[in-house]
Amino acid sequence: MQTVNESKVKWSLRDVIFLAIIAIFFGVIFELWSAAYYAVAATPLKPYANDLTLGVWLMAGPLAGAILQKVGSSTIGEVLAAAVEMLLFSSWGAANLISGFVQGIGTELGFAATGYKNWDKLGLALSVSTTTIVTFIWDLFNSGYADYKPGMMITLFIIRLISAGFFGGVLVYYIKKLVTKSGLLKR
Fold first, then answer.
1. Range 35-67 burial, b when 16+ CB lie within 10 A, else e
2. Over the stretch 28-49, which tens digit does the pLDDT of each residue have?
3. Distance of alpha carbon 83 from alpha carbon 129, whole angstroms
4. Residue 21 to residues 16, 44, 119, 180: CA-CA distances in angstroms?
């Protein structure tokens, strides 16, 4: 049976401050990013708007996980960022919290699949995969994706995977590298 290292469970004040910074930063970005969603939704690409833009809304969880390397940091980071977005008068209101939780759990599953031992490329790749799957299943019921024909569902899934992979995987990886290089993470 795999056990999680105690340092991956205990939180320090520094961890909480980093988490708060990530949540506030991404909460603001999430709120501003809704304009991109609405811009795409106002075009003939409307059926693809959610999946094209979703990747940005998936960044707080993987970044919190990759930087803090704590059990639960991905879920908490995503929910807190969603709360900040909601408090900035998001058009989705309290539904942000549910979405943040679903997205955070999806990300958390990816890091959990490594036993919380890989927070780098493998952990991020798994978190992108699990987040894509979990959020897509959620949208099958919540957003009516189940009513689409199989070809459309496959197309939406692939677009979501690419968006999540770029924003929640590639960009998060490089942001983590920059933060690490800055020396802020020295413990």
1. eebeebeeeeeeebbbbbbbbbbbbbbbbbbbb
2. 999 999 999 999 999 999 999 9
3. 24
4. 9, 37, 19, 16
Predicted TM-score (pTM) above 0.90:
yes
Residue 29 burial by CB count (10 A; 0-12/13-18/19+): exposed, middle or buried?
middle
Residue closest to 84 by CA, chosen among 72, 99, 101, 96:
96
What is the Cα–Cα distance from 167 to 187, expressed in whole angstroms? 27
Q: Which residue has the tokens 């020396």?
A: 183
For residue 3, give the nearest of 65, 69, 71, 63 by alpha carbon. Answer: 71
Token pair 């807190």 is at which residue?
A: 80
Helix boundaries (H) for 42-149: 49-57, 60-68, 73-87, 95-112, 121-142
